Amino acid sequence: MVLSEPHWDQHIPLPKLGLFHSRLVTAFVALICFINSYDGDFVFDDSEAIINNKDLNPGSPLGNIWKNDFWGSNLSSNSSHKSYRPLTVLTFRINYLLAGGLYPVGFHLLNVGLHCVISALMIDVFSILIGGLSHDGRGSKVNISPKASFLAALFFAAHPVHTESVAGIVGRADLLCALFFQLSFLVYCKAFQGSDKKFSVSWMMGSILLCAVAMLCKEQGITVLGVNAAYDILIVCNLNICELVQRLLFRRKSADIGELVRNGLLVRLAILFFGGSFLLYARWRIMGTGPPSFTEVDNPASFAENVILRIVNYNYYYSLNAWLLLCPWWLCFDWSMGCVPLIKSASDWRIVWPLVLWCCLLGLVSQALCSLDSSKRRTLTFGLVLLVIPFLPASNLFFRVGFVIAERVLYLSSAGYCLILAYAVGYCSCRWRKHRVHYNVGKNLADKGNQSAAVKYYKEAVRLHPKYVHAMNNLGNILKERNELHEAEELLSAAVHIQPDFAAAWMNLGIVQNSLKKFDEAELSYWNAIKFRKKYPDCYYNLGRLYADLNRSIDALNAWRNATMLKPDHSLAWNNMVILLDNTGNLAQAELIGKEALKILPKDHTIMFSLANVLGKQEKYKESEGFFLSALKINPNVASCHGNLAVLYHRWGKLDLAKKHYELALLLDASTPGTKENYNMLKRKLEQRHRTVG
Hints:
Blueprint: H1 19-34, H2 46-51, H3 86-99, H4 104-131, E1 133-135, E2 140-142, H5 146-158, H6 163-167, H7 172-190, H8 201-217, H9 224-236, H10 241-249, H11 257-262, H12 265-286, H13 307-326, H14 352-370, H15 374-388, H16 410-432, H17 435-447, H18 451-464, H19 469-481, H20 485-498, H21 503-515, H22 519-532, H23 537-549, H24 553-566, H25 571-583, H26 587-600, H27 605-617, H28 621-634, H29 639-652, H30 655-668, H31 675-693
Antiparallel strand pairs: 1-2
Helix pairs in contact: 1-4, 1-5, 4-5, 4-7, 5-16, 7-8, 7-9, 8-12, 9-12, 9-15, 13-14, 14-15, 15-16, 17-18, 18-19, 19-20, 19-21, 20-21, 21-22, 21-23, 22-23, 23-24, 24-25, 25-26, 25-27, 26-27, 27-28, 28-29, 29-30, 30-31
């Protein structure tokens, strides 16, 4: 057996919050970091895109925003930069209308609001990418890594590199593009929520449609299709790229193409490819089938005649972008006009930085592809996917761009960096807490039913960290189940002495003390648990069991009623109330409680069984029969249910049916108390009837 390291998400130094509260906190952090930009003026590119853009004027035909570029120039013009972002311009126009003029506050507030929403949604995106999918027979479900996704989203919300995108009004193009990028990805994930064998084409088409909307905000939106494809390959199909390459190159075996066809991957990739091709073709037609024209001042490296120097300078730009993500100590709204001098010879010391960048990237790639830890592979791979793919349109690889460095194009790529950074924090925290390894291994073994091995690791965790109350509590539970009650009591008593408000340990101590017949001490332990955790239905349930053992029926019923009020679907508490009332002769009240329980738990066969017994004792045979049969329909192999139904038929005079169910009960469990005697009694009665008839 290979023992794995504890999951890095568990050690991230953050509180575990619900999804709603995590989103709220993340949005609040984003608000606090960027709200100080609300009273800024129109600056830099805002002048051309907003102040001088005639398409914002309500007097201008609305249809013009679909014909002109981002700056209000005709797309067919040679001077146009071909930036086709009509939906972004539409939001500017709405700001203009709502404010009754060009007042920057409204523009800035909408930008900040968009960043808050995007930051909150990043939790959902990161949860899917980190957690992956599980299959439970009813379909695919997303596994959630709450702390990791929360931390990565917090990094994203507060990253200073977003200053240009949020504080600069023209950065709205990046914000809107990012929002619809997220929605396109989340909708694509929905295509796999129905079944682990099928996918929804309609959800996929919805994702492509949202990609088109993202492109109408900024051209970078097309890159979401690459992220969707990576998600499909790595999470939905769970392909290990490293193993696949090794199989193809070294073992000289062909990949199982048939399996890829059967699980629909090739079909989905084809849909993404043709959808993306159509969007690119439409975009090309809209811009007049000609690329924008830029000058050497805009992007000097792209005009370098020597191809090697051009490549070196491009890579130097990449290293500067990476440094802005890693250490945004200095930021600049405009990196043109010689801000970044070209590297013109191999003797320029700056050539070191591209080498450092590629060493780091190759190290991350090797870890992402070759690590034995699937969680590590998935997190690092998608960190790199989000880092690289959204940056490709700004990389100069496919076409010349009109800038040297632009911090706003890092808005989406920063999500990948934040994901990798969150992993690094979790990993380091995990390393700093090595004593927890034994606890996690013990918990994993206990969950798999290997209690003997789990005890060994829990004891080692307690030895290394004598005040590790969670390890003491879990070890005490296992010892309790193994009937090593005195040692369990000692451990749990120590745990609550170290941490007096540890409610779960108090409850478990009460269970052990109850088993040791220390009833007064057990009652006190239960009430201590409830004192420190007001809403503790399981503790009320166990308290009720204690009172039932002491024949304090009223107290037991009150405790179980409290359990059901706090947790309405607490099946054991409902069932115990019915059984106790039945045993004490309160049949009418037992019937009411049983029917009340079935309104909440209509498919609980144990409550049906108990209620059927109560109704049978009241000679409500038909109703009792109905509940017995319903219980057997849900769980047909319960010997006691067949036996009690047979008794009902026996009393009712339906002797043939009674014989059938006695025999079924004995077939399932020949040792069922009283069944054999009742069956023999029935056989004698049937023989007597036959003799009488004969």
